[in-house]
Amino acid sequence: MRHILIIDDEDDIREVAALSLEATAGWDITTASSGADGIRAAADPKQRPHAILMDVMMPGMDGPTTFRQMQQNPEIATIPVLLLTAKVQGVDQRRFAGLGVAGVLFKPFDPLTLASQISEALGWKD
Amino acid sequence: MTALPSIFLVLLLLSVFLLGFHTLRQSSRTRDLQHEIDQLKESLRRSREYAEQQRAKLAQRSDLDTVKDEFISTVSHELRTPLTSIRGALGLLSAGLLGNVDAKAQNLLRIASTNTERLIRLINDILDLERMESGRAPLKLRRCSMYDLAREAVDTMTTMADGAGIRLELVCNAPRDSIYFDADSDRILQVLTNLLSNAIKFSPAASTVSVQIDSDANSLLLKVVDQGRGIPADKLESVFDRFQQVESSDASKKGGTGLGLAICRSIIQQHGGAIWAQANQHGTGTTLWVQLSRSARASDTGAASLAALPAERGEGLILVCDDDPGIRVVVAEQLRQHGYDILEAGSGEEVIALANEQTAQAAHGRGTGEHAPVPAISAILLDLYMPGLSGWETLQRLKESPATAAIPVVILSVIPPTDHPSRTGGPQGWVQKPFNENLLLAELGRVLRTHGGPGRILLVEEDPELAQAILEGFHQAALRVDHASSLRQAVDLCLAATPNLMILDLTLPDGDGFSLVDWLRRQPALHSLPLVVYSSREISEAEMAKLRLGPTEFLDKAKIKPRDVEALVLAMVQRMRNPAESPVSPVA
């Protein structure tokens, strides 16, 4: 079974995204409300996720900063990260592309196809 | 023997006298020079001050752009964040993934869902339009096939058409290899799918929506023809305005945002083309026309792909002014290779001197005919930021002097075209550095075609006999008169070469004069084109306001005979050429 870690500071979005992935794909979901919590959750060997879905704009450490810190930690550097963003301007997209993340998904996402978008971005066949 | 001392004496007196005279002249010369130096110092100070002001303004504007970008990005983010939760929650509920809901609740969920989708589309469309109209979405031009794009659009929309029971057909009346043009394919595809989506939405089941492609020497034409309920005559233009739907309930019934056609128009305009709607002559329904030039225009920002275009050859004497000798050499070499003759100047002062000298010699040469004629300057390429006289000041002085006011000036600058502070008339063209060679040649070519040589008049008249009668009136005048018998042909001729004046009949076989004026108004090079409306129909005050471009005259066909049109037009041309006391030295 796939296990996804969702990092977003908005409670409602965490809940909707988690519900959508559980209901449409049957994946296991863990959530974290900040970059720092997210890094702790990802590094926990008992619940190491297959992929991380992370918001870009968060108070404290934002998505890109959290991603860079994850890259410094050999335990979690290999987990693919997808950014989930409400910033759709061309400039923003180019900035994210240069980070080295596995992909960028846009808000507002369609709850019925979010799981298949993630699978497609990560090349998951099942 | 006694003569010798007296000769010495005379010589002595003479030298004393000459020396005194020389000293006297010297001191008056010194005064003149001092005066000149003071004047130069003063003008140097003023140009420095001016350059400083311009730099400050420029910095201010770029700050403002950053603030605006940031604001739009933030607003967009702030709107999308709550929408994400709403869309997610509603989507999951209405899909029944969390258990079944009863029919009434299901219906309410459906309403909430569709309206959420509509709000998302609206936000996307507003941002799209904003980006385009602020010039922050430059076109990525490449060579495209109109057929391939239309095919792709039709394929994309087939599912929607099938759902509505509508047949889509694609007809290509032009040879497939003749319909290549320079375009941003994603943007054109966006236009085509939007037009198809509209056509499908407003068509009855079991009808056909037809996409037709035609081409001629200069442009490509695409039509989307539907058999729907049609657009009332008074709305044929306003449907392209923001939030203007034919019926106010359309937005909620058809799920549109009211911005689709405004976006289409914006995209087509950015490509230098035209888009308009026309009621079908037979049966019901509407035809949407899109006309695009084969080659991208110099006003396009996506300069990189222009490299693929064949550069145009030119002729004439071009005065190139830049304080950077490196740039002068490059520009001069590029222009020489394309048939131009070059004069170089390293400062504004030098440009003014050279332009005056050359113009005087050219005028003199013409008069006597003894020597090989000295060519007049066809155009001046002018840098803006130069030590000494700035480009703006140089431009102003050139335009103030009767000898040089008629020479078209093309600004060559790192800053984008901006409003000029001069009251004496702005530059005729603009090329932004770093420039692409073809862009420079295209802009120079455009300026020379528009501002040099004899005037060019475009006659737009449906009736061939009447057109003939008007054309005959112009037989004697040293003017070139082109004739277009349809809206499409008129746009085509305008794209091929900018006219100096248009004579317009309001009734045209494929649209009306109002659509043409509307299109002209949105073209940077044509929005103040002098216009003579020559029509047999009564024109109301409100209509007159809609038809006004530059200087505009209204002639009633019932009162003014075709051959008398000439006199009035010539008078207008005369006024255009000599706006005040400006010189009559047409550039050869």
Folded structure, characterized:
The complex is a heterodimer of chains A (126) and B (588). By secondary structure, chain A is α/β, with parallel strands linked by helices. Chain A has one domain: Response regulator (Rossmann fold). Chain A has 5 helices and 5 strands. A 5-stranded parallel beta sheet of chain A has the order 2-1-3-4-5, sandwiched between helices. In chain A, strand 4 (81-85), helix 4 and strand 5 form a beta-alpha-beta unit. In chain A, helix 2 (35-43) runs parallel beside helix 3. Chain A is globular, with a radius of gyration of 13 Å. The mean pLDDT of chain A is 91. Chain B has 588 residues and is an alpha/beta fold. Chain B folds into 4 domains: 69-136, Helix Hairpins (Orthogonal Bundle); 142-293, 2-Layer Sandwich (Heat Shock Protein 90), CATH 3.30.565.10; 310-437, Response regulator (Rossmann fold, 3-Layer(aba) Sandwich); 456-577, Rossmann fold (3-Layer(aba) Sandwich). In chain B, 48% of the residues lie in helices and 16% in strands. Chain B has helices at residues 3-94, 103-133, 146-163, 185-201, 250-254, 260-270, 325-337, 348-368, 391-400, 437-451, 464-473, 487-496, 513-521, 541-547, 562-577; strands at residues 142-145, 167-172, 180-183, 208-215, 219-225, 274-279, 286-293, 317-321, 341-345, 377-383, 409-413, 429-432, 456-460, 480-484, 501-504, 507-508, 511-512, 531-535, 552-556. In chain B, the strands form 5 sheets. In chain B, strands 2-4-5-7-6 form a 5-stranded mixed beta sheet. Chain B has a 5-stranded parallel beta sheet with strand order 9-8-10-11-12, with helices on both faces. In chain B, strand 10, helix 9 (391-400) and strand 11 (409-413) form a beta-alpha-beta unit. In chain B, helix 3 packs parallel to helix 4 (185-201), helix 4 (185-201) packs antiparallel against helix 6 (260-270) and helix 8 (348-368) packs parallel to helix 9 (391-400). The longest helix of chain B has 92 residues, at 3-94. Chain B is elongated, with a radius of gyration of 31 Å. The termini of chain B are far apart. Residues 297-311 and 579-588 of chain B have low confidence and may be disordered. Chains A and B meet through helix 1 and helix 4 of A and helix 1 and helix 2 of B.
